[in-house]
Structures are given as C-alpha cells and as structure tokens.
Amino acid sequence: MNALKNPRLLGMLAVVIVLAAAPIFFAEQNYAMRVVTVGMCAAIAVYGLNIILGFTGQLSLAQGGFFGIGAYGVGLLTTDFDWSFWSAFIVTIIGTAAVGYLCGLIALRTKDEYFAIFTMAIGFIIFLVISRWESVTHAHSGVNNVKFPEGGGIIDFESPVAMFYLVFVILLICIYVTHAIRRSSVGRTLLTIRTSEDLADAIGVRVGFSKQLAFAASAVLGGIGGGLYATVVGFIGPDSASIDKTFEFLMFILVGGMGTVAGPLLGSMIVTFLFELFQDFQAYRFIVLGPIIVALVIFAPRGIIGYLGGIVDRRSRKQKIAEARRTADGASPEYDTAKSGTVTSGIDPEETK
Amino acid sequence: MNSVPRTRSRRLLSSAAIGTLVFTIAACGGGGSGDGGDTVVIGYTGPLSGGGAAYGENVKIGLEMAVDDLNDDGVEVDGKPVTLELKSLDDKYAPSTAASNAQRLADQDKAPVVVSPNAGAIKAIQQINSGRSNFLISAYTSDPAIVQSDNPLTMMIPPNFESYASEFTETGMKHGGKKLALLGTQSEYGQQWTKSITDAWKEAGGSVGGDNSVDYATVSDFAGPVSKALADKPDAIFVGGPSQPTALIMEEARKQGFEGSFLVMDQAKLDEMATVAKIDNLTNSVGVLPVSEYEDPGTKDFIDKFADKAGDKKVPTSETALNYQGIAIITKAMEVSGSTDDPEKIRASISDALPEVDDKYKVNGFPDEITDQGHLLNPNLEATYLDDDGEYTKVPIDQVSDAK
Amino acid sequence: MTLLEIRDLGKRFGGLDAVKDVSLDVEEGRITAVIGPNGAGKSTLFNLIHGYYRPTSGSVTFKGDDITNSSPHHAVADGIARTFQTTHLFDDSTLLENVLAGRIVRSKSTIFDAVFHTPRHRRESRINKDKAMEALEFCEIDTHRHDLASNVPQEVQKRTAVAMALATEPELLLLDEPAGGIPEEETTDFGNLIRSLPKRGVSVLLVEHKMSMIMGLADTILVLDHGQKLALGTPAEIQSNPDVIRAYLGSTAEEKK
Amino acid sequence: MTLFIQQLFNGLALGGVYCLAAIGLTLVFGVLRIPNLAHGALYMLGAYLTYFFLTTIGVPYIAAIGIAAIMLFVVGVGLERLVFHPLRNSPHTHHMIAAVGAMFFFQALAQAIWGADFRRMDTPITGELRILGAEISAQRIVIIVVAVIVLALLAWFIKRSIHGQTIEAIEQDRVGASLVGINPSMVSMLTLGLSALLATIAAGLVAPINLLSPTMGDALNLKVFAIIILGGLGSLPGAIVGGFALAIAETMTATYISSGVGEAVAFIVLVAVLAIKPTGLFTKAVQR
Fold first, then answer.
1. Taking a C-beta distance cutoff of 8 angstroms, is the pair C149, C95 a contact?
2. Does A203 sit within 8 Å of C168, measured CB to CB?
3. Domains of chain C: which residue ranges?
4. Which residues of B are less than 8 Å from A38 in CB distance?
5. How far apart (Å, rounded) are the C-alpha atoms in residues C49 and A202?
6. Which residues of B touch A29 (CB under 8 A)?
7. By CA distance, what is D11's nearest residue in B?
8. How far is C144 from chain B (nearest CA, A)?
C-alpha cells in the first residue's frame, strides 16, 4: 500500500488522529467535549449530504428533516416506549432509510432548482409534523431524558469521553463507507450523474435508481447523526429538525469541501468552532460571521479540502503525466499541462448567453 | 460544473482567508477568563438574535441592572469583597445550543449560576447541571415541568402559570360570557396555556370552541385566524404570545367586531402591548399585572432606573423585573452561604437569604419562600383586569401546587 | 447476420413527425451511416434506438430481442453504446477516469463489496482498469490518460468519448457526428479509428455530415429527409441516386464545400 | 356563509402579501437562476427603512416607501457586486450559502441599529370596508390591488426575457432603456437592484398589517419559494396564481380543517404538484 505517499490520506489521518487524541487534553473540559461530540454528530449528517450533493450533485434541503427524524426516533422510542437505545437506534436507521427512499421516489422526478425546493418542502413538512403533532412528538415541549446507550456493563456511556468515542467510531465508519462508495463503481456512477445525466444514460448507468439510492443513503446518514445527537444532548426540541439545521450542514460541507472525503469532517469542526468563538459577540456575531461565510464561499469555493486537494492533485498529476510521457516517448507537448486543474477550457457559457 | 476561473490573486486571497481562519481557530484555544479571584461570573444564555431576541434582551437588561446595582452596593462573601460580572451568550432559542453555552459558562467562566429564560433550554441544561458539572440554573419560565423533574440545582423564578387559569376563567366569564375561543400562539408554552385554560373553562361550565392557535411568529396576516375564531361568536377569547403580536390580534378582533373579553396569557404584558396598539382595543381583558402597578418597595426606583437604561419608550416588564430580583436573591444566597463556587450551598441558602434581601431589589411581587423543588413563591400573587376605561383592577390569584 | 433491425420506426412530437416509417438493417461487422440535412431526424433516430425516446410506432430488434421500449441503460447493458454530437466528458476528471466510467455498466460489485473490500471488488477493479487502458490504447490516447479531459485538444476528447463507449464492451456503437469539430486534416486519422472498429467485433452505426469521410468509410448508407427514408444503398449507389443529389447532395454538399 | 366570504377576502389579502413578496424573488430566480435566500432580509431592511423615513424622519408615506426603495436598490446592486457576481460561475449551493451569510448579516445589522423589539408602522391608510357582510381593512385592499397591478405590469415587461433573452427584459424596462447593449453583468446588477426595490414596495405596503422585527422576512422566505416553484420558475402569471391559490388554500384549510394543516398546506400542495408535474404548473417545460 502506498497510503503514506498519498497526501490526501495523510491529511485525513492527521485530522482523525488529532480528534482521537482530543479527549486526552479535554477530558476534564465538558464544554469542549460536548461541542466536539455534537459537532461530530452533525458531521455524520454532513457525510450524508456529501453523498447526494457532493457525489451526485443534487442539492437536497431535506437533510435537517432526516436529522430530526433520527433524533426524534431515538428520543421517542427510548422515552415514551422505553426501548433500549440500541434497538431504538437501529429501528430509527431503518425508518429513516424507508422515509428517505419513499421521498426519493417522488423527489427524483424533479431536477435542479425544483429538486432543491422540493426537498426543502419535505424538510419543512417533517419539521411541521414534529413541531405540531403534539400527541406523539410533544411538539414544542420536546423529548426529555433520552436514554444513554447501554454499555452492557462494560462501558459507561454517561461519561462524556465514552460518548465521544462512540460517536467518533461511528463517524469513522461513516467516513470509511463514504470513502469506499466514492472509490467504487457506485461512486463513479454517482459522479457520472453529477456531470451529466445524459452521458450517464449513454454509458448504461441506471440514473433514476442510483439517485434514489444516493438519496436514501444520505437520509440514513442524516438519521444516524440525529439519533446520536439525541442521546448526546439528552433533550431534543423541534429545532433539531429545522431548516436552519440544513443550512448549517450546507455551510459545513461547503467550508470543508464538497465531494471530498475529509471535507465534511473538517468543515463541521471548523465552522462549529467559529460559531463558538464568535459567541462573545453575542447578538452581533453575525455582523462578523455573515461576511466570513460569504468570503469563504467566494474565495475558497471548493472548500478547504478542495483547495488543498487541488494543489496536491496538480502536483501528482504533473508527475504522472511526465511519467506517461517518458514511457511513451512520443509526447505531444503542444498544450500546457501545468495549468491542469485550475483553468477550464473555453469561455464561460453564462457570460456569452 | 467547476469552471471557476481562478487567477493568481484569487489564490492568494483564498490562502489568506484560510490562513486567517486557521489563525483564529488556533487563537480560540485560549478562552477562559475570570481568574481575578474576587470576580464571580453570572452566566446567561438566551435568545439574543433571531425571533426571540427581544425577549432575550429584556431578560438581559434585568440581569445587567441587578449586577450593576449589586456591585455598587458592594457584595461581600466570606469576608471578601466580590465583584459580579455578567457574561451573556446567544442561543437563538435552540435548547442544545443553550446547554452548550451553559456548559461553557460553567467550565470556562466558572459561573456558579446560569440564567436561562425558556423551558426547552432549561430542560436541556438540566441534563448537565448536576453531575459532572455543577451549577445553579436560574430558570425564568412558568412551566412547572422544570421543577417536577426534581433537579436539585434549579431555581424557578416566576409563578406557575397554571395558577392563573381559574381566576382568568372567572374574570373572563364575568366580563364576557360562557363561550371561549382559543387563539393562543403555537409555542410550547402557548400550547400548555391553551390546555390549562381549556380545562379550567370547561370546569367552570363554559364551552370552548375549536383550537385556532397559530404560530404568532410566522403568520403574515392575523385577519384570517381572527375571522375563524370569531365565526363561533365567542364571548371571550384566549390570546397570548409575545406582547406586540398579541396586541395586533386583539386589535384585529375588535376591528372585526368582537366585543367580549380577552384572556391574555402571561407572556404578553398589557402595558407593553399598549405601545403598539391603542388601549381602547385592549380593554376588557384579564392578564398579568404590569410592573408599574406593583407596590413593592423597590418598584418605583426600578422603573426610573430602567428608563435611564433602556429609554423611556420601552416598558419595563416582568422578564426584566423578575430576573433583577432573581439575581439579587442568588447574590444574597452567596453571601449567606459564604460561598461563590458551591452551587449546592448557594441553593441551600436561598431560603435563609430571602428575608435578607434589600428592599430596593423587591420590585415585582417578592417571594417569601422557596419550595423544596426550587420554586420561588410570592405569597400575594395578583393578576389584573383592564376595564373599559383603561384602568387596572387587581385580581388576587390562588397558587396551585407544582406537583403533576 | 443482421445485428439491429429497425422496422417502420416513427416518432411524433406534437403533431409533427420527427421520424416516420424508417426501416434499416445494421449488419454485423459493417459500418452503416445515416446522412441527411439538419432536422432530417438523424439524432431522433439515434435516441429512439438507444431508448432515450419511446417510439410512437414501429419496432427495434437487437440480436433478435425486441428492445423497442427499453431504456438507455438497458440498451448499453445489451451491448449498444453511443457517443454524442457535442462531446460529453467529465471535465474535472482525467481521461482514464473518464473511460473507467464506461466500466460501470459491466461492474457487478455492490456498495457492500466496496465497503468490505471483497476479493470480487479487487478483482473487478483490476479488470476495469485493464479494460479501460486497453480502450485508451486502442484509441491511441493512452499517453494522455492522466490529463484532465478539459485540457486536451478536441480530437483527443472525441477519441476519449469513443474509448468510453468501447469500455462498455458494446457490439454496436452509435456515433453521432464523431468527426464534428475536428480539423479537416485530422479526420483521416479519425476515420481510420472508426474503420478499425469492426475488426474488434464492434459494428458501427454513425451519423455524419462530412461527406468525404462517409463515402470512404460506410458500407451502407441511409439517407433521411424530413424524417423519412429517401434512399438506402452502398456509397456508390447513393452518390448516383438522383433523388439524393437533388434533395441533399446537390445543395448541401456545395454549401459545405 | 359570512365566514366564507370573510375568509375569502382574508385569503385574497394574504395572497396579495405573498405575491408582492414573491415578485422580486421570481425576478432574480427566473432571470438569473439564483435562489436568493437573502430576499426576506432585503424585504425586512426595506420595511425598516420605510419605517425610519415615515416615523423617525416624518416623510409622507408614499415618499418614505420611495426613498427606501431607492436605497434598497443600491443595497441590491451592492449585494450583486459583492456576493453574487463573484459567484456567477458557481453552482447553486454556493449562492444559497452566501445568501444565508448575507441574510445573517442583514438581520444582525438591523438588530444593531433598530434593536430586537417589535415595531409597528402606522400608515395614513385607515378604516375598514364592509363587503357582503365581511370586514376588511383599507390597507389590505390596497395590498391586493397593488399586488395585481405590479405583477401584471411586470409580467408584461419581462415576459419574453425569462427564457434566455435576459437583456431584452432590461431594454424594455424604463430604467434600462438607455442602456441598450449592456453586458450581462449589468443585467444581473439591475435585476437584483430591481428585486430589492420591489421587495421594499412590498414591505412598505405589507408591514403595516403586521409588525417589524429583524426576523420578519423569515416567515415569508420559505413560503415564497414554494409559491414561485409551484407556479413554475420565472413564470410571473404562475407567481400570481400560485400566490393567491396558496394563500386561499391556507386560509380555507386553517378555517375548515385545522390551523396546523393550514400552515403546512403550502408545502403539501407543492409536493403534490411537483409529484405530478415536476416542472411546476406554468413552465413551458424548458429544462436545460
């Protein structure tokens, strides 16, 4: 394995190691532990968003809703129905998968802006159901005392450190799964759809079905994140399903880098800390944060990972190209390969229209 | 898809942007302050931006006034002078953010007490305030659920809202009639009120129409919901949410020809409502007593000070006044217990501290006892009836128990 | 042997016939061409064969199976690949990655194989890469394999499109104006590439404007006009067909110099 | 029966509110395909500025709206220059997040300047009308009438521009009449400026029936998106029909079913319509 030569993997590894070691320094700081753990729950949902948005190129605004379904599934089952956390968690995941799949059936008939707004409507309906269906969800009273995961007498999940590692391990699994998906032909299928549905059709990709799967997968990750969130914070209210959550997730993924493997994690952590950092400005923090968000989107449109990845890619591709040239010795150097990756051909279609 | 034309300058800018970001995050590590030894941080997490910002600000003003006044008077704990410092964080009304904020205030600022003004947030904070972290919650909500949870470190400030139901019902029926329409807000609290009033009204032999509750914050035009409520030809209407939209609803009802009485939920304050609607449209209503109508020893001075601080256009409300009182009580409890960092001791001393509190801090129905569950009780709770001449008449309230 | 049999195929959009009563046999191992003026229905015909549109009448049979109402991905799975008039490529990906995308349809491994890194997954990844490299080499663009698609010249892009289609292991390749946008002097090379396809076991059906290229390339030519068959025959027959000369060759050939 | 008529009028007035708020958004969304989530914030700023000139400075009502509208035009242009222009080649996601950032900024700014308290804007238009036993205020009638007029005018102005001929829209517009041959980025600027201007007119008319607060635009934002998608992107007649239809559906379901359903009905209708017709009611099926 040449994993050590791959700067992307190295970077990812670095982030993971730093996170894994965090409790060593922060174990006594409940606040830091809490922020990071909640941030990781969100990061799981963001990985879900990465599948549908980053890989497949469909902007889904229902992610906050699925996150809410996950949170309320675990919350209600462990309190009102007195299930154990683990059974509630698994049933909830299956439940979100089903809801995601069903929503996908209709949602994927639509495209582009329509898809975005359609999913926004779905997310909002989920929110309304949660905040209005009082007899089941307790509406605005919320769900209190969500159970901790049962440690089977071995691990005590009431300890923030144990909880941290639980979420961390599940997060790692989710990251690995998204990474595996991306590398596999499934991932290539999704990337194909992102580029052009017509082309995908032409090379034999089952566009509708693949989109459907991607949507369901993203819903599942949303549900997992939400379910963990419920047990981490112990009390959940309808705000855990609100559209604001969706936008938060979008911000995370955009700052980290869409379609990248490390982006959602890094983005979630950085934005979460930014938000906490600017807490000191209280009501006026958004006078500063708003422009920062705008600036990030404008100046690092591919996110931090996308930005760093671009550098790495260019370098490694240059090497590979040179190698390919050398072996084939009949090179045709009539164009500038050094520009690879940054400049795309032609005039911008929007400008010329 | 990705056809962003990038130039060298742009790349530079993005490096700069990312660099700044990394730098700020590195700088974030520090945090924590307040090791001045004799400074005690009073933590506050509330909605300071977003839809609930006005409410959160009102609470904050009360806290600031209390901290300023107490510092001026001088606080002495265990023989040492202590300076109070208020540290406020914004939670945008989100319970989980509120809990994170509270955790931060307790961890980094060593705040022995954290004030929170909404039930959801308080429930979320109760998950963490007694156990690995210890701090007292100064809870500004009239939802008794927060004391029913038997959290040992919660102090509930306002009266239990359920106390109002029977008296409101009686007054509302007397001045209106037997038929009630429900038009409260769709918040957690609004719904609890709706339920409580419905029960009391039925018990008193009245009839209650369908639930027309709407979310006051998201309705663009109240005319529709009001028309619907009036369609049943009610004699009385239950309304309530934030003061200003409540006033608008009442005004709309009057314009559409409603002549019966209003039952106004305690979240809305009649005097504050009068700042956005003509008083004529608000009369014949029963609601909580405006701060200015209280006759506690410190009320007058408090109102003057409030005007200095917030301008005379703003009306002081119980959100401000009760939290002002609350901080004074907690500070006195610190003095009595001789501890600024042991929330259990502070909580235990509240009972003894109550009679010791200086008169100037008694502004809005001062409590004389605290229940075992942590509820401050004011012996003479009063509501008010606003008659057709715009005069307030006090209505005494019997308090109900907090038990479920 | 007849690979593809088109019988009385028709498609109406609104009240207009885009394609009407077209019949055509595509023989195995041959290159068949469809020509006609703009709007003659050539691309619509392609879209009908490939399942992108549903025909309103007629049938399409591939290797004896009726595929009239099949969908594009089924068509590809059955062995019919296509390229587009305007080149569709993944601009942000390298040529190799582009061609690998063509392997999706032949991949059996699922998400679970990918997650658990099963032997099947590994075996398949290796095969996919080999096949993609082979297609790149066949199209003589393997030296560009690590270049981004958006950075290579038009001709290489066109070849990549062919390589991607070949990676799906088709028996029939539909080429929609494969030489469009390529400088005149390079069309000969490109023609040679197309000519070598039947030897690989890939039969070709193509739409092309460049007459010179078609005449030297195709075994059979179908001439469409207003969605209907005008003539069908060998290049020589077509060149001497008076209807064709009048309707198409006479006018457009001159325009097109 | 009286209830029905009363609610019909209430629904119409609400439809007017929705339509007025939707106009600017349709413009930007239809012409530039930017989902401007900051539109609600522009609406809010417009309301506050109108309030400022009307109440604090004491300018007459119409003039206050006019001055505020012009100021918002500048804000809109600024927004385009600083935020959307640099993003013109990026996918929608970027626009959305940037718009959310801008929205946060505007809300915080308004709170910093005017405070978080609710404010009431009193206008010279007072009194009620009695129609068929239903009571409706003059301000609401003004809203309905202005909404229809403005939308009709606008539809007539830029009808043909939506699907590609962007520049023509501005050419036909009196502001742009002198700018024949302008470049696309000028079109973007003017469109956003115009949308902010229209949002201010809407806010100036609508704000008096409710309250001013820094988050007043939020409630409208989601619904207005539902309306313009329902009507079909960029279709102004679609926005009119969608706005009134959803408003009446909302009032009626709230009246005859429950207020909860009333709140959700806009989105349920949207989901149902898109499930059957994925491009909205009035699009001419032009998908890229």
1. yes
2. yes
3. 1-79+170-257, 92-167
4. 96, 100
5. 12
6. 107
7. B224
8. 21
Which among B54, B228, B255 has CB closest to D135? B255
Angle at D86 between CA D85 and CA D91, to 5 degrees: 90
Contact of A335 with chain C, judged by CB distance below 8 Å, is answered with: yes
Q: How confident is the model at residue A326 (pLDDT cuts 50, 70, 90)?
A: low
Concatenate the DSSP letters of all residues of B311-341 into one string.
Answer: -TTSPP-HHHHHHHHHHHHHHHHHHHHT-SS
Architecture per CATH, B177-283: 3-Layer(aba) Sandwich (3.40)
Q: How far apart are the first and last CA of chain D?
A: 47
Pick the residue from chain B with its C-alpha nearest to D218. B218
pLDDT in tens, chain C (257 residues): 788 888 888 888 767 778 888 888 888 888 888 887 777 788 888 888 888 888 888 888 888 888 888 888 888 888 888 887 776 777 777 888 888 888 887 777 677 777 777 788 888 888 888 888 888 888 888 888 788 877 888 888 888 888 888 888 888 888 888 777 777 777 788 888 888 888 888 888 888 777 777 888 888 888 888 888 888 888 888 888 888 777 765 554 444 44
Domains and CATH numbers, chain A: 19-300 (1.10.3470), 302-328+336-342 (no CATH)
Closest to A294 (Cβ–Cβ): which among D89, D98, D271?
Answer: D98
A180 vs C: CB within 8 A: yes
Answer yes or no: do A205 and C73 touch at CB < 8 A. Answer: yes
As for the ipTM of the complex, it is 0.79
CATH topology of domain C1-79+170-257: Rossmann fold (3.40.50)
- Averaged pLDDT, D25-51: 85
* Residue C200 CB-density burial (10 A; 0-12 exposed, 13-18 middle, 19+ buried): exposed
Say whether D13 and B248 touch across the interface (CB within 8 A): no
pTM: 0.82
Residue tagged 């905040």 (tokens): A131
Contact check, Cβ <8 Å, B49/D108: yes
Domain B39-161+297-381 fold is: Rossmann fold (3.40.50)
Residue B192 sits at the chain A interface (C-beta within 8 Å): yes
Structural domain boundaries in chain D: 14-216
Residue by residue, DSSP assigns A164-228 as HHHHHHHHHHHHHHHHHHHHSHHHHHHHHHHH-HHHHHHTT--HHHHHHHHHHHHHHHHHHHHHH
End-to-end CA distance of chain C: 37
* Contact residues for A48 (Cβ-Cβ < 8 A; gap 6+): A63, A66, A217, A218, A219, A220, A221, A222, A224, A225
Pair of tokens at residue A321: 């190209």
